Amino acid sequence: MDLWLIGELAITGALVGLMYALVAVGIVLVYKTSSVANFAQGAIAMTGSYVAWAFATLMGAPLWVAIPLALVTMFGLGFVIERAVLRHMVGQPIIMIIMVTFGMEIFLRGMMPGFFGVAVKRLDLGIPQAPMFLGEMLINRAYLIGGITSAVLIVGTIVLFNSRAGIIMRAVSDDQGASWSVGIRVERAIAIAWGLAAGTATAAGILWGSTQGVDWSLSLLLMKALAIAILGGLDSIPGVLLAGVIVGVCESLATGIVDPLVGGGTRDIVASLIILMTLLVRPYGLFGREQIERV
After folding, report:
1. pLDDT category, 19, cuts 50, 70, 90?
2. Residue 207's domain is classified under what CATH number?
3. Who contacts 287 (Cβ-Cβ below 8 Å, separation ≥6)?
4. Tell me, what DSSP letter sits at residue 181?
5. Are the CB atoms for 197 and 78 separated by under 8 Å?
């Protein structure tokens, strides 16, 4: 196997993995503040890309206006989802809350194509299409810009969690009762986490929409994001960075090396295998906190 080809597959996979990781950040944000697994994140990313496309195409807004409008709109949607839906599930079994988020995933996945049409929508961010070479390796410019942008946004999220607002959200994650006792508005912190999760999903949806078009298939990013969130640790944002690179590289190498041997299809099972192996070998992920309950 040509080393240049392996290097190209690894670099491409790492960049794609970082774009997956931006979706996974939202899953971690919600879990860190409310201990709820957010199964609606894939459809929220898809919805955000549709909203950005609608602002840019249907309303004629320039991209530098359409993208911030989409981010603000989706932050508001995440806030509303928590207030209007999930807050009413307080006290219910955790499986019921998870099913509600999964129900939102199915609802949004059907509603957005039904409203805007099933045809693939073009979302052009102005990224040059000319090939870029690193030695003999061909690097996709869209993946390069998308991966770098995703990494910057993830690092920004890490910085946010070390700020005063982040400390409040971490306190809510550690002990909601104690947070209430010191005057922290727990519901507001959780709603903000949902808003931020929707915002990061929208950014990822826009990046992916610019590379493959905007349609219902963007909701399938959920499986990749879940694999990254579980591998990195459901309560670790830094773990998302490393896990994203690992998942992306594994997926790319499987596609480039294993597919020709077996006839294709390995890309679709890499994320599932990573989820299964992580849960069997290290249930709390690479950087997740192991919680030991004593009775």
Report:
1. very high
2. 1.10.3470
3. 232, 233, 236, 238, 239, 242
4. H
5. yes
